[in-house]
Design a protein that fits this description.
heterodimer, A: mainly alpha, MetI-like fold, B: alpha/beta, Rossmann fold, 2 domains, six-stranded mixed sheet, four-stranded antiparallel sheet, 9 helices, 36% helix, 22% strand, globular
Chain lengths: 261, 281
């Protein structure tokens, strides 16, 4: 027997989604224009996309670029951020560089990158890598900077070298903050992925979306938006599960979740 | 009250008699200056010399900001003195090492490790096989009164329990010297008393050398063989008071003992003087 309160909190996200679709449906029926298909039309177009071999290959190619860009960013950004957080010299060397890159929309670099590296996978992966790196560097930096000095002293007294302390104290102590950066990075990777495919229209989920727009297949456009949104939600929820398991030791006992996990 | 010279004679019958030729810790004309954010230099401690024999329980007592923790950090090797030298068994201290185990007021536990994981961390670091480390760890956890809490994470423990874990974690790798930096300062009075009693019981078993920083006169007198009273900043040694009370010490008996009461009153007066010195130099 589930308590009514627990049932309500389980059902709340579904109710919210149903409500949103309901508003969309009603608005589309009232407006009644070709460029705003109803929610049902949008949803009805989804199986056609997912059933099409070409479209599936496109979407998988997008996901692959996203995974490679994100993995490269994680591998480089975490060590760099941690070193910046523990060494004033490293921080003052990289800080100006990062501050220059920070406000530039990474998609704005796409034309230059395309000019040099072409419109293929390398350019798009590079843009994803650039878009994702900064939040991960920033959060790793913050996490490493906040590590208690006395914790490191305790490690040093046990005979740990500087490198061991970095790997076995700074990294785990900063992990909750690092993973917060990675979560932001994951969603940014999806955003940059679609943006890069809008600019370099050659393959990918963004390409399907904008081809459909060009051909005035508006139900496909909306179906694609739903698919991309769902990918984001699923990836985020999966990541939150993983994160929750990795940093269970740091979570407060009563927490309001901010995810679909 | 007996006021000792800076280099006291070894007490007859003390555990340290064979090592009498070589004191455990020698602090030789140590001064420490810090650069403050305003590019000014702040003299934290000034020209401190102190000898600590093997197996002695020594309290460093002083008002806050007198640099007593700095002195402890210098012995720990966490801070290098601006002037002078600190030696451990005759060798100059150049950095931290497992021969000196710190216990901090902030506990500084590893929050991603459970109680057992924290306690065996140093043993694992030294290459002790897991099974053996865990067996030793469980014994220590039992000794500090936390049996049954092996799988708890630090966030699930109270302050007193956290400090028990920190003490067990440090005892685990068997340092020759325990460096305790106001270890009970963040605890409530009741917990503090219990931990003092337990610390004494543990210490009376193996008589490690202990350097114990505190600003509580009661605590210093109750625990120590020797109380080093420091002045306000810049910290200098005002006086060293030997506490000649029998061991094992029991709080209930001691509180009624006029000798104990006299030590407390005399040292409080010394600290008061320190304050007046500051106001009327």
């Amino acid at each position: 027997m589930i308590a009514p309160r627990a049932m309500l909190s389980k059902a709340a996200p579904l109710l919210a989604v149903a409500g949103l679709l309901g508003i969309w449906q009603v608005a589309a029926l009232i407006l009644n224009t070709d460029s705003f298909p109803s929610a049902l039309d949008g949803i009805r177009a989804i199986p056609a996309i997912l059933g099409d071999r070409g479209d599936l290959i496109n979407i998988l190619a997008s996901l692959r670029r996203m995974a490679i860009g994100l993995s490269l960013a994680v591998m480089l950004a975490i060590p760099l951020g941690l070193m910046m957080g523990r060494s004033r010299a490293v921080a003052s060397f990289f800080n100006p560089l990062l501050m220059v890159i920070y406000p530039v929309p990474k998609a704005a670099l796409m034309p230059v990158i395309m000019l040099w590296l072409g419109v293929g996978d390398i350019s798009k992966t590079l843009v994803i890598f650039l878009g994702v790196s900064l939040p991960i560097i920033y959060h790793s930096f913050q996490g490493a900077k906040a590590v208690e000095e006395k914790m490191l002293w305790s490690g040093a007294a046990m005979g740990m070298s500087a490198a061991q302390r970095m790997l076995r104290i700074v990294l785990p102590a900063a992990l909750p903050e690092i993973l917060t950066g990675c979560r932001t990075g994951l969603v940014l990777a999806l955003i940059t992925m679609v943006t890069s495919e809008m600019i370099a229209r050659q393959s990918g989920a963004g390409n399907i979306l904008f081809n459909a727009l060009d051909m005035a297949q508006y139900d496909t456009v909306f179906a694609m938006i739903i698919i991309i949104g769902a990918m984001g939600i699923i990836l985020d929820a999966a990541f939150e599960r993983l994160r929750g398991r990795l940093v269970k030791w740091s979570e407060p006992r009563f927490d309001i979740p901010m995810s679909f996990a | 009250m007996k006021v000792l010279p800076l280099r006291p004679e070894v007490k007859p019958g003390s555990a340290s008699a064979p090592a009498a030729a070589m004191p455990m810790i020698e602090i030789d004309h140590v001064s420490q200056t810090f650069q403050t954010s305003g590019r000014q230099s702040h003299l934290a401690i000034s020209d401190i010399s102190l000898v600590i024999e093997d197996g002695a329980f020594v309290a460093i007592l002083g008002p806050s900001g007198c640099g007593k923790s700095t002195l402890l950090y210098i012995v720990g090797g966490f801070v290098n003195p601006t002037e002078g030298v600190a030696k451990l068994k005759g060798t100059a201290i150049t950095g931290p090492g497992p021969d000196r185990g710190p216990v901090f007021q902030e506990f500084a536990l590893f929050p991603w490790k459970n109680v057992l994981g924290n306690v065996i961390y140093g043993l694992r670091q030294q290459g002790v096989p897991r099974a053996e480390a865990e067996a030793q760890g469980r014994r220590l956890i039992d000794m500090v009164g936390l049996k049954g809490f092996e799988n708890f994470y630090p966030k699930e423990l109270s302050g007193g329990m956290k400090q028990r874990v920190a003490i067990a974690r440090t005892l685990a790798y068997r340092p020759a010297v325990l460096l305790m930096d106001e270890p009970f300062g963040a605890l409530d009075a009741h917990t503090r008393t219990r931990l003092q009693n337990d610390l004494l019981n543990i210490w009376e078993r193996d008589r490690k050398t202990v350097l114990f920083v505190t600003h509580s006169v009661d605590e210093a007198v109750f625990l120590s063989d020797k109380v080093v009273v420091m002045t306000r900043a810049p910290g200098r040694i005002k006086q060293i008071v030997e506490i000649d009370l029998p061991r094992p010490r029991r709080r209930a008996e001691l509180l009624l003992d006029p000798r104990y009461q006299k030590y407390v009153v005399d040292i409080e007066r010394l600290i008061d003087d320190t304050g007046i010195d500051e106001l009327h130099p």
